C-alpha cells in the first residue's frame, strides 16, 4: 500500500479534529503533525485536551506554524490539508504548492471559478487566479479523475456537498427543466465553527434561517450545477448534520424509470446510500461518511432529500476520499 | 364583561390541555368541564396528573363523555370546544349545534371546502356537508366577522396558520404571480400528538421530512390561499413550535413599498409581530400566542419566514381568539 | 394598590430580561428604566432586539448607567433591582441605599454571612461589611418578615433556592441527623449567563459536573441550612431549569407522618407545589415561578427532589416575591 | 485468528442492533443470523430498515426464532448472544447451553447471585439456579479469567458498569470506609428501550428521577461491590449515554498517592480513559466503547465521575470484550 506523510494545518477546529482522527486511523497515511496559527493560544495543547472524545487517538501536541515548521513540512510532507480560514488558505496554499507538495484545502479559498467573486462572497481580494484555475473541485464521486491528478484540491462546502449530490444526477441526465431550483437546508451548530459566540450559545440556538439570498455557498452550488438556484440555510440546535430539502422541476415527459436511472450513477458508490423511497434523517448520517438521498415526485415536481454529516461528508471524510483518489486507493479507504 | 360557560371535549391531549389552561385564566370564560371519550382510561384522572406543569391550575377531573354528560353540556354550556380526532368532531359537532350551542372545532373535520376531499385526505366519508358549508374558517386575523357570527368555527391547522399568515397579505394585495408557492415547514414533536409511538420516541426523533406531496394541510392551504402550493412538512426533535420558510414569486414591477404595505394589514394586530428584517426563530414563539413574520426579497423572488407555537397560535390560543371575536372582546383577551 | 417605581440595572442578561418582563406585567410596579454598564455596547439597544420573544412587551431602550442616570434613579425610583456581577453589585448597592432607596440584589454580593468568605468564593475583597450584615436573605417563603422590612435584600442563588426549599422543612422540624447532606444538581445553560463562551457553545454542551467541592453556592447553602453539605453542580444542554436530587439521613425514629408534616409548612404557599409521591421534572417548571418538591424515603434514608426554573424561582420571580412582600402584596402577585 | 459463528437473538432492539453491527465488523466473528421472537412483526424485516444509520452494513433479514431456527443455531453457532427480555433469556439460555454452545446474555437474567432476588427485582421466579451459579459476571476489565472460561456470561447492566468501573478500584484497594456509597446517575432515553411509550415520547422527556430506592440495578451493584449503595437513576432527554456521579468516603489516612494508585489498575486497559483531573462528559463517550473516569477529593470525601455509552460499554461493546476474552483476543479487538 502506498504511504503518504501528511500535515494538517488548522487542526484545532471541528473539521481539523475530525480529519486528524481519520488520518490517524488510515493505514496509508502517516500524520507528520497538527498545526495551528503561530501565535494561537492552542499551540502546545494536546488535541485530545480540546476533544476528550478522541482521548485515545489524538494525544498529539498542536504546533504553532512558524517558518521553521513550514520548512519542516515542505521537507517531509507529501500532502498538506488546510482546515484554515478562507483567506489563510489562499495565502498558505501557494507556498506549499510551489514547494511541490499537494494541497487539499477544506476552506472556500479555491472553490469558486472566478477571482472576481471573492470580494463579494468572501470579503477579500483573491490574488491567486492561477491556482484557483488549477484547483480540482473535490466532490469525490463526481470528479475522481480531476482530483486524482490535481496538485490542489478544493474540498466542497458542506451545503454544496449535500445539494450537489442530490442534484447532479438530474442535471447530468438532462432531466431538470430551466426553472430555478430551491434548496432549503438545515445545519447543526458545528457548521458555525468552534469559537465563542452568542450565535452558538446553547440558550440562543433555535431553528432559524440566515444568509438569505446572499450565502457564499449559493455561487458555489450554481456554478457546479450550471443552473439557477435559490439556497436558504438554517441553523438548528443539534450539534452535527445537514438536511437539504431540494425542490426542482423535471422536463415534461420524464418517466419514472428515467428518473430512477439518473440515480443509478451512484449504484456502485460505497459512500452513497440512495433510494427513491427514502426520507433521510440527520440521525442516520451523524458520525458517518455517507450521504443519504431519497427522491419523491408528483407530476413534474420533484423533491430530493439529502442528508450528510457536515463535518464528515461535508468536510473531513470527503477530504479523505480525495486523497484516496490521489493515491489510487478505494474511495472509501479508511472510512468504514 | 360577557361570561360564557364552555366545555372542552378531548381535553387530555396537548391541545386540549393548553386550551383548558387558557380557558381557566380567561376572565370571561367559565369552564364547565373537561371531557374525554366515554371509555378512555384517562376518565377520572386529574388533568394536572397528566400535565404536572399545570398542577396549580388544572386540578380538574377528566370526565368520560357519556350520554348523561352530553345532556348536561347541552343544558349548561354556551360553547363547546372540540379537541377530538377529525372523525369524532364530525360526529359530535352536529349534536351540540342542533341543541343550539356554538362549537369551536380544533380538528380538521370542518376545515376543507368540499366533502369530496375527506376520503382522500382524512380517510373517511364526511356526512355533514351542510355544517361543513356553514363553518367559518377560524383564522382569527383574517375572518373576524365570519367567526364572530358563525355557530361553527373550524380552527385552522397548525401548518396552515403559519403558512397563511405569511402569504395572505401578498395574495390579498395582488402581489403574488401565478407560480406555485413552496412551503417548507418544520414542526416540533407535539404536532404528532400525545400518544405512545415509535415515531415520537426520543431516540428516533431527528429532522426528517414526511407527508411528501400528500399531507392533508396542502388542500387546506391551497383553498384558503386560492393558489397552487407545494407544502412539505418536517418533524424535528424539539417539543413545540413551527417554522415555515415560504418561497414565492412576486408579480413583475412590485415595489419594495408595495411589498411592505401588504404587511401593514397586521399593523394593529396585537398577536402578530412582523418586520421586513426579521428572521423568526422557534424559541421566540414557544409558549406564546404570537405569529412572528419576516420577509426578504431579491428581485421578484420572495422568502417569507413565519413562526408559531403549534399548540397555541396553531391551535389553542387561536381558538381563544375565535371565542373572543364571538364575544365582542379584544382579540387578545386572556392571552397576554 | 401601592405603586412603586423601579429601576433594573444589568437588564441585558437572562435574569435582567426576565425581571424586566415581570415588572412590566406587574400592576403595582412601574418600570423607570432598564440599565446596562455605562460603556456597554448594548446601551441604546432595545431590550426586545436582544430578546425577540419579548418583542411585544420589552420595546425598552437600554440605557448606559452614567452619573446622570444614577442621579435620575435616585430621584425617581423607589427600588433598584441589581442584576449585575457580584462585585458590581457590592459597589453599586451602597450608593442607592445611602440615597434612601431599597435595593434588591440578584447577585451573590450580599448573600454570604461573612466578608471573610468573599475572597475565597468570589475572588474579591468585600468592603461593605455593614450592608452585608443588614441584608435580608430573600428566600421568600422562609424569611417574609425580614424581607418585608429590609432596605437591602440578597436574592438567593439558583442552586441554593432549589436546595434550601427542599431541605429547610426538614431542618426546621429537627428531622435531619448530623450526617452531611449531599446535593446533586443539574442546571440548564442559561445558568452560565449570556455571554460568548466555548463552555456554552451548543456543540460543546453535554451533561458534565463542574465546580467540584468549591462552588460558591456551597457556603451559601451551608450557612442558611446550618448543616454540613456536599454540593455538586452539573451543566446540561437544556436552556433552563434546575433539578436537585438531595440525599439526607433522618434522625432515628422519625415517622412518616412527622416527615410529611414537615412539608406542611408549604401547604398555603401558592408558588410551592409539593407532594410526597412527586418526581419533579425540569419541563414542568420551565417558564414558571414554582418550585416542585417530592420526597421519598427508605428507612432513615431520604431523597428529596426539587425543581425550579433557574431564571425565575432561581432569580427573577423570587425577586418579585421579595418586592411583593415589601409592598404588603400577596407573595404571588404578578406571577400567575 | 480464531473464527466463531455467532447468533444474535433479540437483534431488533437498540442493543441488538449495535451488537449486530459490531459483530459484522469484527474480523474473528461470523454472523450466522439475527433473530427476533417467533411471532414478532419485525420478522422478515431488514435490520437496516429499522436502523437506516446502518444501511451499509446491516442488510440482514430478521428471522423469527422458530424451533427450526433454534435447531439450526445449535448446529451451526459457537456462541449465542441474547439481547432478549430478562425472562426470555432465562428460558432460552439453558437450551443453547445444554446443546454445548456458549451464551453471552445481555439481559439481567443471570446477573444476580441468588434466585431469591428475582421475584422482587425482576418480577418472576428464576428456575435456573444452577446456571445462575455458573454464570460469569461479564465486567470485562475485572473478571477476564472467569469470562474466558465460562460457558455462560452475564453482561452487566449499563448503570452497574458505569458504577462498578468507578468504584471497584477503591474497594479492591481497601480505600473505602464502611459508609454507604451514593450513586446519582443519568441515562439517555435508549436506556428505556425501543418501544412505543409515553415515557419516551419526545415531548414528555425531561430530566427526572425514577426507580427511587427500588431499581433492579441496586442489588447488582451492591453484590458486586460488596458494599452498601444507594443508587438513583434519572432519565434525560438525550438519546445515549450515562453519567454516574458517585459519592464515597475514604478510610481515614488514605493519601493522594494511594488513591491515584488505586486507579493504576486501569493503566494498561485500552478501553478505560481515566485521570484524576477529569470531568467526563456524555458527549465524549457516545458511540464509543470507552469508560471515562475522573476522581476528585476533599479530605476523605470522594467524588468519582464515570461516563459510558449505555448501548456500548453498557451493553454491546462489553459483550464483544467478553467474547474477545473467550477467544484469547485482545480485549479491544474489533472495537477501535
Automatic annotation (TrEMBL), chains A, B, C, D:
Can you name a GO cellular component term?
A: cytoplasm
- Which SMART domains does the entry link to? Semialdhyde_dh
What CDD domains does the record point to?
Answer: AGPR_1_C, AGPR_1_N
Listed A to Z, the keywords are:
Amino-acid biosynthesis, Arginine biosynthesis, Cytoplasm, NADP, Oxidoreductase
Enzyme Commission number(s) from the entry: 1.2.1.38
The catalytic site is made up of: 158
Pathway per its UniProt entry is: Amino-acid biosynthesis; L-arginine biosynthesis; N(2)-acetyl-L-ornithine from L-glutamate: step 3/4
Any idea where the Semialdehyde dehydrogenase NAD-binding domain is?
5-150
Question: For this UniProt entry, what is the primary localization, expressed as one broad class?
Answer: cytoplasm
User: For this protein, what reaction is catalysed?
Assistant: N-acetyl-L-glutamate 5-semialdehyde + phosphate + NADP(+) = N-acetyl-L-glutamyl 5-phosphate + NADPH + H(+)
Known InterPro entries for this protein?
AGPR, AGPR_AS, AGPR_dimerisation_dom, AGPR_type-1, NAD(P)-bd_dom_sf, Semialdehyde_DH_NAD-bd
Q: Kindly indicate whether the keyword ATP-binding belongs to this entry.
A: no
Give one GO biological process term.
L-arginine biosynthetic process
Q: Where in the cell is it found?
A: Cytoplasm
One Pfam family recorded for the sequence: Semialdhyde_dh
- SUPFAM superfamilies this protein is in? Glyceraldehyde-3-phosphate dehydrogenase-like, C-terminal domain (SSF55347), NAD(P)-binding Rossmann-fold domains (SSF51735)
The family note in this entry says:
Belongs to the NAGSA dehydrogenase family. Type 1 subfamily.
Q: Which NCBIfam families match?
A: argC (TIGR01850)
HAMAP family the record matches: ArgC_type1
State the name under which the record lists this protein. Answer: N-acetyl-gamma-glutamyl-phosphate reductase
The protein's organism comes out as Idiomarina ramblicola
Amino acid at each position: 500500500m502506498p504511504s503518504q506523510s501528511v500535515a494538517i494545518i488548522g487542526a484545532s477546529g471541528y473539521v481539523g479534529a475530525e480529519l486528524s482522527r481519520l488520518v490517524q486511523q488510515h493505514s496509508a497515511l502517516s500524520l507528520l503533525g497538527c498545526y495551528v496559527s503561530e501565535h494561537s493560544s492552542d499551540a502546545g495543547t494536546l488535541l485530545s485536551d480540546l476533544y476528550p472524545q478522541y482521548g485515545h487517538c489524538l494525544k498529539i501536541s498542536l504546533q504553532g506554524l512558524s517558518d521553521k515548521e513550514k520548512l519542516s513540512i515542505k521537507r517531509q510532507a507529501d500532502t498538506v490539508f488546510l482546515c484554515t480560514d478562507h483567506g489563510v488558505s489562499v495565502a498558505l496554499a501557494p507556498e506549499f504548492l510551489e514547494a511541490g507538495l499537494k494541497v487539499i484545502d477544506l476552506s472556500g479559498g479555491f472553490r469558486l471559478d472566478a477571482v472576481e467573486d471573492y470580494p463579494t462572497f468572501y470579503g477579500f481580494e483573491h490574488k491567486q487566479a492561477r491556482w484557483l484555475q488549477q484547483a480540482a473541485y473535490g466532490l469525490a464521486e463526481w470528479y475522481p479523475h480531476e482530483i486524482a491528478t490535481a496538485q490542489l484540491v478544493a474540498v466542497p462546502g458542506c451545503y454544496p456537498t449535500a445539494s450537489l449530490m442530490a442534484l447532479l444526477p438530474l442535471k447530468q441526465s438532462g432531466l431538470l427543466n430551466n426553472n430555478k431550483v430551491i434548496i432549503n437546508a438545515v445545519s447543526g451548530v458545528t457548521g458555525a465553527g468552534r469559537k465563542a459566540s452568542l450565535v452558538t450559545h446553547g440558550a440562543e440556538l433555535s431553528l432559524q434561517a440566515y444568509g438569505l439570498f446572499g450565502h457564499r455557498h449559493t455561487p458555489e452550488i450554481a456554478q457546479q450545477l450550471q443552473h439557477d438556484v435559490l439556497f436558504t440555510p438554517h441553523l438548528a440546535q443539534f450539534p452535527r448534520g445537514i438536511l437539504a430539502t431540494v425542490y426542482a422541476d423535471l422536463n415534461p415527459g420524464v418517466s419514472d424509470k428515467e428518473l430512477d436511472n439518473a440515480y443509478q450513477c451512484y449504484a456502485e458508490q460505497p459512500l452513497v446510500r440512495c433510494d427513491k423511497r427514502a426520507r433521510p434523517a440527520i440521525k442516520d448520517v451523524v458520525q458517518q461518511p455517507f450521504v443519504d438521498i431519497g427522491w419523491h415526485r408528483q407530476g413534474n415536481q420533484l423533491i430530493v432529500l439529502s442528508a450528510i454529516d457536515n463535518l464528515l461528508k461535508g468536510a473531513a471524510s470527503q477530504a479523505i476520499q480525495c486523497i484516496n483518489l490521489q493515491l489510487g486507493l478505494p474511495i472509501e479507504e479508511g472510512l468504514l
